[in-house]
Specification:
Distance between the termini of chain A: 62 Å
Largest sheet of chain A: none
Number of strands of chain B: 10
Number of domains of chain A: 2
CATH architecture of the largest domain in chain B: 3-Layer(aba) Sandwich
Largest interface: A-B, 47 and 60 residues
Strand content of chain B: 15-25%
Largest sheet of chain B: 7 strands, mixed
Distance between the termini of chain B: 60 Å
Number of helices of chain A: 12
CATH class of the largest domain in chain B: Alpha Beta
Strand order of the largest sheet of chain B: 6-2-1-7-8-10-9
Shape of chain A: elongated
Order of helices and strands of chain B: HHHHHEHEHEHEEHEHEHEEE
Structural class of chain B: alpha/beta
Structural class of chain A: mainly alpha
Radius of gyration of chain B: 20 Å
Number of strands of chain A: 0
Oligomer: heterodimer
Chain lengths: 202, 283
């Protein structure tokens, strides 16, 4: 039989891995290892501020998401405001991957002065327990002036909305009266929420 | 006799959107009955009579419901030569490219993870012996790994029933198996000795790291069960386990581009596979 059987030949971890210098491969390896160390959040967040390689950034975000503490979520949050789309996407993906740690930041994020941050944060609410997500998104809908932010909140409510969200949805549609997109989105969300409950036929 | 009524149009869309976002599996109106059946089965099994209640149960992943629900949409049964087009791609395209990257005498390494009870890694071995002309001159190391140590033990033992062998021609069964009883066959000793089995947790970097770098990884129908955090970590671990230019084959419903931007898509005649960029780094 020409196939061979022999012990696996693991690649030894890079002992000189450093997040501050070296090739992108070395920085990638260092980012992957940093999440396993006690000072991981400090090392990773400081590296994220300097790193330009998208692959290494992805490993840093994954490392922070893997640590999943209030501190690691706090290190990611500022990147929701980045002008760099890949950083914003990396941040939202990382926060989505640590819903428990990201949750406490959501009330502030949904009230952020930057409309783009509020819009991205609506998606994070999807990962919260339904009741809390409904409450936060309804609070946002009641005062939100940006149409696109409202649309993002309405889209999430179309999936997780509960009957108590109906008044906020209706008022949102009224406030943007004449806007066909908001009217359509709210109509779909309301239809899904009020869909008659299915019960078992005996 | 109790019966779960059909889901409404809105409920159907909710479930389809959830499934798509979670797994990448897309179901259209044409598959409504198929989706309905699986919802009804799960609701019936759990004695949940309201769709709203079931959807909240599903979203909350109570008692691992997401995995059970997704399981209902996938073919969990594994058997020899499953997704044969990927094996054709392996022998037609992938290995030829990988051989060029090898130093003389360096073995090609192929990883089947998760390997369940061994059907996939043994299939790879049989396929190559039967279909890859270079098999006699190129060293090939095949490793099968699974998180379930009972599966690993069963894989090492290499005994299978009739259903697992249903896609194999009788001649192949005769050549690579020995009958052990009523509708039971065991892989011949030489072939069993040619495949190494280990346990591994795909989201544990320390465990994946010790397996080293592979030329081709078969990682089918597992990422769809992971949550966002686990999927990201597994993708990065798999990236590290590929040699630069190495390939990863996923299940037919899966897409690495939904999970990570680390890999490049390669389209071959028989399959779409993902590749670790040859230069090591992107961007």
């Amino acid at each position: 039989m020409p196939l061979v059987r022999k012990p696996s030949t693991p690649t030894p971890p890079t002992s000189s891995a450093s997040l501050t210098d070296g090739t992108s491969d070395e920085r990638w390896a260092a980012a992957r290892l940093a999440a396993e160390k006690p000072d991981g959040v400090t090392v990773l967040s400081s590296a994220l501020a300097r790193e330009n390689d998208p692959r290494v950034r992805e490993a840093i975000f994954t490392g922070l998401a893997r640590i999943a503490t209030a501190k690691s979520a706090a290190a990611v949050v500022p990147y929701l405001r980045s002008d760099d789309a890949s950083l914003r996407t990396g941040a939202i993906d990382a926060l989505r991957a640590m819903p428990g740690a990201a949750g406490p930041h959501l009330p502030h994020l949904l009230a952020d002065p930057d409309a783009d941050v509020r819009l991205l944060s609506c998606e994070l609410a999807r990962g919260l327990p339904d009741e809390e997500a409904n409450r936060l998104l309804c609070e946002l809908l009641e005062g939100e002036s940006e149409k696109n932010v409202c649309a993002a909140a309405v889209e999430v409510l179309a999936e997780i909305g509960r009957p108590e969200a109906l008044p906020s949805l209706t008022r949102c549609a009224t406030r943007f009266d004449g806007d066909p997109f908001i009217a359509f989105s709210v109509k779909v969300a309301i239809e899904r929420i009020v869909a008659p409950p299915r019960t078992r036929r005996e | 006799m109790s019966e779960i009524p059909p889901v409404s149009e809105e409920e159907f869309r909710k479930v389809c959107e959830f499934l798509y976002r979670r797994t990448g599996m897309l179901f259209t109106e044409a598959k409504r009955y198929y989706v309905q059946r699986r919802i009804s089965d799960r609701m019936g099994f759990l004695s949940i009579s309201s769709f709203t209640t079931y959807f909240a149960y599903l979203r909350g992943d109570v008692d691992g419901e997401i995995e059970k629900f997704v399981n209902a949409f996938t073919v969990n049964e594994t058997y020899f030569y499953r997704e044969e087009h990927q094996l054709r791609c392996l022998s037609s395209d992938l290995l030829a490219e990988r051989v060029l990257a090898k130093r003389p005498g360096e073995a090609l390494r192929i990883w089947s993870v998760p390997c369940a009870t061994g059907e996939e890694p043994y299939s790879i071995a049989i396929w190559l012996l039967e279909n890859w002309p270079e098999v006699d001159v190129q060293d090939i190391e095949i490793v099968g790994s699974d998180i379930d140590t009972q599966c690993v033990t069963a894989a090492r033992h290499g005994e299978f029933g009739l259903r697992a062998l249903m896609r194999l021609a009788p001649g192949l069964v005769e050549k690579y198996f020995v009958p052990t009883g009523q509708d039971r066959w065991r892989i011949v000793p030489d072939l069993r000795e040619s495949v190494q089995f280990t346990s591994v947790n795909l989201v544990d970097p320390a465990e994946t790291r010790r397996h080293g770098a592979f030329d081709v990884i078969f990682c089918r129908n597992v990422l769809i069960y992971f949550d966002d955090a686990s999927r990201r970590l597994a993708a990065e671990n798999l990236f590290d386990n590929l040699a630069p230019g190495g390939f990863i084959c996923l299940g037919h419903t899966e897409s690495m581009s939904r999970v990570s931007s680390l890999f490049e898509v390669r389209r071959f005649a028989d399959a779409i596979v993902y590749q670790r960029p040859k230069g090591g780094a992107r961007g």
